[in-house]
Write a structure and sequence with these properties.
The chain is mainly beta. 12% of the residues lie in helices and 60% in strands. The protein has an 11-stranded antiparallel β-sheet with strand order 1-2-3-4-5-6-7-8-9-10-11, with helices on one face.
């Protein structure tokens, strides 16, 4: 699991546990208010705990009154069978039109684990680029590691490697 994916799992799991303990069966709320930067800030959170597991979501944003905005969201779930999944993302949009986005997810359970993280950017001239890295490992030990990139001038590029349980490189199934 990548370092970013590990951080996502930890942060979302802490949030999930906190909400599940503090809120009991189901709770949530939201707030929107003016901020010191001359803009508006807002956010919401919701947690639920029941016979089928726990789940929590959070999202928020802030503007500065000058055309800049930042925001993000996170979610986590946990099932009675031990499967855990989390995702997190954040974005910024500058007054010049520049947009940056980063996100990631991770899941682990009886059948294995997977993680993915990536980013995308659009500059003020409209040029777009992005990248994503994904890894997965089955409970038997076979694995996949792949990277995908995109930019306006070269297009999409992808590389991926599959390995069997012994660590030998094998062809990836289509």
């Amino acid at each position: 699991m990548s370092k970013i994916a590990a951080h996502i799992v930890v942060l979302a799991s802490i949030s999930l546990i906190s909400m599940g303990i503090a809120f009991g069966a189901e709770a949530g709320g939201h707030v929107v208010k003016r901020n010191a930067a001359g803009g508006i800030s807002g956010g919401s959170a919701r947690g639920i705990k029941g016979a089928n597991g726990k789940a929590a979501t959070m999202k928020g944003f802030a503007t500065d009154g000058k055309g800049n905005v930042t925001g993000g969201s996170a979610a986590a779930v946990s099932t009675p069978s031990g499967t855990k999944a989390a995702r997190m993302g954040r974005f910024t949009r500058s007054s010049d039109g520049t947009i940056n986005h980063r996100s990631g997810m991770a899941v682990t359970g009886r059948r294995g684990s997977a993680a993915s993280s990536g980013s995308a950017t659009k500059d003020s001239s409209g040029n777009v680029s992005g990248e994503r890295s994904t890894s997965a490992t089955s409970s038997s030990g076979s694995s996949y590691q792949g990277d995908t990139t995109y930019n306006k001038s070269t297009g999409v590029s992808h590389s991926g490697t599959c390995k069997d349980a012994a660590g030998n490189v094998v062809s990836c199934p289509k």
